[in-house]
Protein: Glycosyltransferase
Amino acid sequence: MMPSSPFVISFLLLVSVPVLYVLAPRILPPKTLPSIPDRDEIDDLALFRRATLASAAGGGGGDGLRRHPAVPPKIAFMFLTNSDLSFAPLWERFFHGHERLFNVYIHADPSTRFLLPLTPSFRGRFIHAKATQRASPTLISAARRLLAAALLDDPANAFFALISQHCIPLHSFRFTYDAFLADPGAPAPSRGDGALHRRHRSFIEIVAGDPELLKRYVARGDNVMLPEVSFDQFRYGSQFFVLARRHAVLVVRDRRLWNKFKLPCLKSREDSCYPEEHYFPTLLEMQDPEGCTHYTLTRVNWTDSVGGHPHTYQLPEISGDLIKDLRTSNSTYSYLFARKFSPDCLDPLLKLADSVIFRD
Structure:
């Protein structure tokens, strides 16, 4: 006769609870996309703390122009990649002759296999990288690592340009450099320590009011972003930006908003999950809206996007007229960079380099 007393039934139920607790995650599909591994988060926090302390000790909270008058301000070109740097030869032509005015930093996904040889400006410029993937905050972490590495590496880095491996320059280096330093929309110089100092703006797209913005805001859950970020404060913009030094420090120092944006999106809302397009615009809009241009300097063609990817320019499309069209902008400046280009565009772009691209 099988035991059927209430005691036995209660005992079996009690035993089954921990078993279900262990087995359920292996049987049921996950409700969220993968989160950032704890080990990666700990490593990043240590890196960001070092960058923040070093910037504070060196007076780097400003625009990097105050305590090193003998050293010209530099641009940190930060390449975020998961494939070959196919356009390195074009960038090498862009950099040539301006070695005192720039630094290169590369964050390459650890799974990346580089088959093409690196040009001189890119050799030995890799930072310690972690795995990245779409629809996850890992792309934010990668950009923050690049910023931290650049802050630690050279106190003369005054601007921090995030670039993809599919990106090309649209103007000469000198034109690009002068555009950053001579921003006509920046506040008038202020007097400090007996000298005039300009607080340069960051070139970052910051947009509100998009019809799809609510879907993106609730990608992690209906009320998850509260109370740190209300829907009225939530912004979006291009993944690619140029930050002034004080904003680079602000980003690596941030913990409050990061604790929200690092949360994984719900799997059911994966199509609305673009953390890297929201974190930086939202943070800077909340902290220093007047210090930002609200537009990006990287041209992207979204007219025939596929799966969240912009149009990729192919070999037959490359021409001098295309370069001139890509420069056209409604903002104060023409676009300085453009993406996305297929690797086989390199040769025709090199042929246009001196006659069109670097001829301002």
In short: The longest helix spans residues 6-27. Residues 38-183+198-300 form one domain.
